[in-house]
Write a structure and sequence with these properties.
By secondary structure, the chain is α/β, with parallel strands linked by helices. The protein is built from six helices and nine strands, in the order ααβαβαββαβββαββ. A seven-stranded mixed beta sheet has the order 3-2-1-4-5-9-8, with helices on both faces. Helix 4 links the parallel strand 2 and strand 3 (97-100). The mean pLDDT is 93.
């Protein structure tokens, strides 16, 4: 990764390396709400309009959502910052492709993806680096390609630092953003809004979820 020295990448990577096995055990099927699954299915249908061009699942973690896309008939592969997460995904889904990488510097050619899925992964990217990630989305998408983002949201932007999770010492930052803030950033990168959905928290969730679907013209 060409930007591996960026200060936020190192603690994010080492934190997820530390909790990878516990995270996968806690969310064995990805922890998806039925509405989340429905929106992913709609995204998959849009992605297949580009034939065999693949979808990149950015922040793929243990690989559950990449496998869901594959089951929906979408050529897909996963990219994750954490080598431990990538190793888990490869072991669980050996028929699929996963590699280590950062959404702020994708090792992918221009205009080759039918879609990008970023579920709860942009939440670890600081505001200063979010335009870089969105520019990478725009660069790697085919014209007409879609990106679906999901993130925890609130009435105001905010930040949370976690020093511990699953009994492991970590150094992980979470950034909460409003849908309007994310939509504006995507538009500045050249990605036009198709739809936005807000889901209120359920179960043990403490924050609402926002889904933003955009398209490269």
């Amino acid at each position: 990764m060409t930007d591996a020295t960026e200060p936020f990448l190192r603690p994010t990577r080492t934190s997820y390396d530390a909790i990878a096995k516990d995270y996968a055990a806690q969310f064995p099927a990805g922890g998806l709400h039925p509405l989340d699954t429905a929106l992913i299915s709609a995204f998959a249908e849009l992605a297949t309009a580009h034939g065999t061009a693949p979808v990149a699942d950015l922040g793929s973690g243990p690989g559950h959502v990449t496998a869901l896309l594959d089951g929906l008939g979408v050529p897909s592969f996963g990219v994750d910052l954490s080598p431990a997460m990538v190793a888990l995904a490869r072991d669980t889904y050996p028929q699929l492709r996963f590699h280590v990488g950062s959404m702020t510097s994708l090792d992918l050619p221009d205009a080759t993806l039918s879609g990008i899925l970023a579920l709860y992964s942009t939440i670890h990217v600081p505001d200063a680096h979010l335009p870089t990630a969105f520019a990478e989305f725009q660069r790697t998408l085919l014209p007409g390609g879609h990106a679906l983002l999901a993130f925890q949201t609130g009435e105001e932007p905010g930040r949370l630092h976690l020093p511990e999770r699953f009994g492991h010492e970590i150094d992980l930052d979470y950034y909460w953003r409003t849908p309007e803030q994310v939509i504006e950033g995507l538009a500045e990168a050249g990605l036009e809004l198709v739809a936005g959905v807000r889901r209120e928290p359920t179960g043990e969730e403490s924050r609402a979820r926002a889904f933003v679907l955009v398209r490269k013209a």
